């Protein structure tokens, strides 16, 4: 019985995918649940498992653009699983063939006689080899006159063209993945369809770092997950979004959609590109719940197992370029969202505190926003609120 393999329904808005690669070979026996190929949609890549055991027949090639429901292969479910064959015996090496050793032909060197020490001295002074002089003396011996008349012949010099070596100059091309093409399209759309502007502020991370240092071990022991900065930033933004709902809103045609909840998009870098999984109802979660959710989504994203639904519907996003060493940036909106917060690296800088110059761990924050819906007062006030919550993290617990 031949069981058809078809492109499954991935998401409501996905109509076409790319067959990235086959993980099994044509004619290979696969067991039920084994991944047979990898497919890539506009938003994510995923592995397609075998619905049953059988021998695979491949009917589509890697790189093909395929519609949802399109047939890509078959499984012969009546085929029995092949027995494991013993390893083949090592081939007997063929007998070594003895070859006669080649002897270099030795050419007898003709002895050149110089008749007198005077002739020898002249040739040495003129740096002329005796073998290059024809002797006129008895038995071809070189006389003094032969040495005096011998002329030095300049050696011929081959013309050499010098080419400056510039190193390897290779180049290669590869087809853009569907995910990379979608990212490119979205970024250009965001730049061309929004009135994007960025405002900046800086955060003194001293109090937050001290709090994390004090409780990170007990936090991990109790909750089974590390205490990172992202949960504090997620919580601070969720609180600030309540006070400034326009930052959490979206434009749809000629209407503005306000959300009374926070679905926080957390940008994650994967081998295939940047994806933004969503932490649902972040405003209701504790720091431990946020850390667990971020870890689970980030792991799925990097393993290529995140679903379209897990990356859809965010209302606000955070991206952390600081993990790569970024000092400052202007993040691009994740449309249709109206704002995105950019985190950056933490650097010890001299700052004025109570009239004195002290060294503090400072992080620059950047809020990019759509000026069509968010005014400068709201954007600046939102970022200032986030700064205040992070510099005094006890306010997150007291909700003040």
In brief:
With 400 residues, the chain is of the alpha+beta class. It is built from eight helices and 19 strands. The strands form five sheets. Strands 9, 12, 15, 16, 17, 18 and 19 form a seven-stranded mixed sheet that branches.
Tally of contiguous helical segments: 8
CATH architecture of the domain at 196-398: 2-Layer Sandwich
Work out the radius of gyration. Answer: 39 Å
How would you describe the shape? extended
Task: List the defining traits of the structure above.
400 residues, alpha+beta, OB fold (Dihydrolipoamide Acetyltransferase, E2P), Chloramphenicol Acetyltransferase, seven-stranded mixed beta sheet, four-stranded antiparallel beta sheet, 19 strands
Account of the 3D structure:
By secondary structure, the protein is an alpha+beta fold. Among the domains are: 2-76, OB fold (Dihydrolipoamide Acetyltransferase, E2P) (Beta Barrel); 196-398, 2-Layer Sandwich (Chloramphenicol Acetyltransferase), CATH 3.30.559.10. It is 25% helix and 24% strand. It has helices at residues 117-125, 144-149, 178-193, 206-223, 229-243, 287-302, 376-391, 394-398; strands at residues 2-6, 16-22, 29-30, 35-40, 45-49, 54-58, 65-67, 71-76, 196-204, 250-252, 255-257, 264-266, 268-270, 273-275, 278-279, 316-320, 339-343, 346-353, 356-370. Strands 9, 12, 15, 16, 17, 18 and 19 form a seven-stranded mixed β-sheet that branches. A hairpin with a 2-residue loop joins strand 10 and strand 11. Helix 5 (229-243) packs across helix 6 and helix 5 (229-243) crosses helix 7. The longest helix is centred in the middle third of the chain and has 18 residues, at 206-223. It is extended, with a radius of gyration of 39 Å. Mean pLDDT is 85; it is low at 92-111.
């Amino acid at each position: 019985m031949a069981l058809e393999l078809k492109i499954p329904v991935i998401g409501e808005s996905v109509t076409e995918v790319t067959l990235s690669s086959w993980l099994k070979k044509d004619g290979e026996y696969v067991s039920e649940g084994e991944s047979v190929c990898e497919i890539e949609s506009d938003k994510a890549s995923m592995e397609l498992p075998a619905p049953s055991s059988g021998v695979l027949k491949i009917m589509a090639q890697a790189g093909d653009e395929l519609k949802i429901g399109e047939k890509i292969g078959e499984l012969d479910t009546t085929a029995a699983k092949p027995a494991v064959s013993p390893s083949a015996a090592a081939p007997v090496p063929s007998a070594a063939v003895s070859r006669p050793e080649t002897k270099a032909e030795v050419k007898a060197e003709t002895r050149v006689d110089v008749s007198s020490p005077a002739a020898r001295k002249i040739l040495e002074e003129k740096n002329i080899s005796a073998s290059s002089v024809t002797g006129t003396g008895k038995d071809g011996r070189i006389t003094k006159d032969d040495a005096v008349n011998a002329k030095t012949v300049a050696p011929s010099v081959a013309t050499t063209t010098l080419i400056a070596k510039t190193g390897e100059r290779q180049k290669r091309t590869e087809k853009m993945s569907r995910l990379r093409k979608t990212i490119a399209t979205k970024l250009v759309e965001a730049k061309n369809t929004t009135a994007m502007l960025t405002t900046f502020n800086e955060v003194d991370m001293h109090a937050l770092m001290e709090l994390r240092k004090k409780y990170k071990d007990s936090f991990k022991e109790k909750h089974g997950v590390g205490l990172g900065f992202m949960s504090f930033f997620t919580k601070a933004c969720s609180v600030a979004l309540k006070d400034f709902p326009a930052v959490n809103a979206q434009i749809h045609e000629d209407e503005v959609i306000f959300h009374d909840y926070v679905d926080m998009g957390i940008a994650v870098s994967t081998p295939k590109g940047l994806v933004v999984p969503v932490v649902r109802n972040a405003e209701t979660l504790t720091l431990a719940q946020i850390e667990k959710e971020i870890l689970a989504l980030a792991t799925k994203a990097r393993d290529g197992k995140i679903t379209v639904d897990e990356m859809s519907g965010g209302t606000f996003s955070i991206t952390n370029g600081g993990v790569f060493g970024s000092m400052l940036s202007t993040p691009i909106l994740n449309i249709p969202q109206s704002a995105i917060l950019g985190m950056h690296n933490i650097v010890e800088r001299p700052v004025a505190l109570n009239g004195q110059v002290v060294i503090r761990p400072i992080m620059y924050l950047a809020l990019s926003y759509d000026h069509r819906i968010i005014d400068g007062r709201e954007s600046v006030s939102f970022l200032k609120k986030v700064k205040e919550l992070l510099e005094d993290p006890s306010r997150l617990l007291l909700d003040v």
